[in-house]
Amino acid sequence: MPKMFELSGKRIWVAGHRGMVGAALVRRLSREDCEILTVDRSVVDLRDQADVHSWVLENRPDVVLLAAAKVGGILANDTYPAEFLYDNLILETNVIHASHHAGVEKLLFLGSSCIYPKYAEQPIREDALLSGVLEPTNEWYAIAKIAGLKLCQAYRRQYRCDYISAMPTNLYGPGDNYDLDTSHVIPALIRKAHEAKVSGRELEIWGTGKPLREFLYVDDCADACVHLLKHYSEDTHVNVGSGTDISIRDLAGLIAEVVGFRGDIIHDFSKPDGTPRKLMSAEKIKALGWSPTVSLRAGLTVAYQAFLQDSSSNHQRSA
Ligand code: GFB
């Protein structure tokens, strides 16, 4: 596939480099002949317009990868609607506007598969956007992400900015959040299965276990983003997924196998199921010449090892 955009010699700002996706982008970009720029939250609060504008003007990135976001699982989304809407709206507005102001050549905005209607036809194509009602547990986050991709389209239309958007499915991998109240399902079940194995108790999953979810290993997502930077320049967002889904119950079984947990799996029916299914169509990104390389079992095995390392270093720090 011919390259449209050259990364060689470019100054690339990864906004949100401490997060799971941002860290994977830094790992992936370190294989390119480019200069990676990052800035810590203690230096620039992305919710502060003046901070963001002066940092971008001073550091002059050529390319921006907007991976910074307030993220969390189903319960966090449902519990903190104001933060999920406000923080995401303001930080993406600040970064996108400052990038335009400073003449950034290319920007990639990362959204989420929750932008699509709750009952969208499966697999969900990019044109299903805004065709129906959203899932109530995460509509705040979804609306902020829809606004982000619309901002990219608006700046492209009005100012001809080369800003593109990628919509990844549910991501997992090293650097995930294992806090049970705020995490997504994979890190939560890795931790719960590990603790259940150690204590000899049951593994508890939320809801009915019937919802279907599509998962993508975070380094595959980072690779897709770099591919899109090089090969894509249009106003429609692009789905980034694995192309297959699995029920939460079967996912729990697979995680139990990876972790070596052999006890019973029980349900907490007081917790929400959320969207029944959100499998995205991978046709568009496939046609652009990209497909994932890490299987769910292989990715979960690496993620479990990363969890063990993370918890042993946390343990050593607190000892
Ligand atoms: O990953 P998750 O929190 O987010 O939950 P969503 C996926 C499914 O796993 C839901 C079930 O049906 C949960 O009820 N589940 C089972 C669990 N056990 C657990 C558990 O211990 N912890 C968690 N967290 N879930 C999020 C959105 O939706 O996905 C965000 O809220 C974002 O906005 C993100 O889009 C990717 O897939 O339901």
From TrEMBL:
Task: Give the keywords, sorted.
Answer: Isomerase, Multifunctional enzyme, NADP, Oxidoreductase
Residue positions of the active site: Y141
Q: Where does NADP(+) bind?
A: 16-22, 110-113, 145, 168-171, 184
Q: Is NADP one of the keywords?
A: yes
Q: What is its EC number?
A: 1.1.1.271
Key word Cell membrane present: no
Query: Which top class of enzyme applies to this chain?
Result: oxidoreductase
Record: residues binding substrate: K192, W206, R213, D273
Q: Where is this site: Important for catalytic activity?
A: S112, C114
Tell me what reaction this enzyme catalyses. GDP-beta-L-fucose + NADP(+) = GDP-4-dehydro-alpha-D-rhamnose + NADPH + H(+)
Which pathway is this protein assigned to? Nucleotide-sugar biosynthesis; GDP-L-fucose biosynthesis via de novo pathway; GDP-L-fucose from GDP-alpha-D-mannose: step 2/2
The record's InterPro entries line, in alphabetical order, gives: Epimerase_deHydtase, GDP_fucose/colitose_synth, NAD(P)-bd_dom_sf
Show where the NAD-dependent epimerase/dehydratase domain sits: 12-241
Q: What does this protein do?
A: Catalyzes the two-step NADP-dependent conversion of GDP-4-dehydro-6-deoxy-D-mannose to GDP-fucose, involving an epimerase and a reductase reaction.
Sequence similarity: Belongs to the NAD(P)-dependent epimerase/dehydratase family. Fucose synthase subfamily.
State the protein's name: GDP-L-fucose synthase
Q: Which organism is it from?
A: Rhizobium sullae
Q: Which gene encodes it?
A: fcl
